[in-house]
Design brief:
By secondary structure, the chain is mainly α. Helix content is 85%, strand content 0%. The longest helix has 31 residues. Keywords: Membrane, Transmembrane, Transmembrane helix.
Amino acid sequence: MKNILLINAIVWAAVLLIASWMFKDDPNYKYFFGVLVFAAGFTNSVIHSASKRRRESSCLK
């Protein structure tokens, strides 16, 4: 599960870099960038909490 989290973080970093380069002249860039950062953090937290529940459930068996 750590591999998925790492790959997801790398993909989001690439998306952020590409989007920053493509939309740097847009007047709403700061909002767009904020939404992307929030989405990346939210996705990583969901994956982390899912892996945490998976580890806790496997320890009980």
